[in-house]
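Blinded run. Sample ID left blank on purpose so nobody reads anything into the name before looking at the predicted structure. Input follows.
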Amino acid sequence: MGAPHPLLPYFLAAADGRFPPVDGMVTVLPPLAGGLECSVAFTGHAVVATALSEQAVHAQAPDGFGGSLAPDFLRHLAGPKGWIDVVDVTLTARGTGGPPRLPVVDDADDHPRVRHARDVRTDVEVYGDERGLITLAVGLAGRRELSIELRDIRDGGRGHGRSLISDALSLVPAGEPVFAAVSPGNARSLRAFLACGFTPIGSEVLLRPERG
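Blinded prediction complete.
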């Protein structure tokens, strides 16, 4: 296994309540594995992982107060035809360990949630039951990531989202940090994660550049 990506310590420190300085600055780091790059915003400080030079990044005048997630800056990072994912809230919690409360699911390879996880993450594991699916994987910068998809949300899920997330935390060793990226507009999902003890630590967007 290679050395961890230098962005990983930022996430682990944030999980412990320790954040970069609130100075409006942007830290530039090397790109992620698999041809991916990202822009991550903490309070008053941003971190961009990219193959572009530090000079090329700062020439666009991003800042740590939200400018690192501005559409024009993200398009500059990705290039004219590069892929830009949605901007997500970054959340973290701790695993609860103990006996796993969700069974492995081995017939969901074609599920959109699973396909997306395997496109941008590695070591993807799929769990679930009649309530929905959980993916647990190695994600951004090597952190442990969890995502959820309910099977039926037409009636509001009847609390299934919260119970599924709570059960998913049993799949993570007690005390180990786990992260989730949730669209701010998906208020129902965001409320479910918050109710299960997840804490917002920033925001992020993934990119797969195509710069010619």
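Unblinding after everyone has recorded impressions. The two ends are 31 Å apart (CA to CA).
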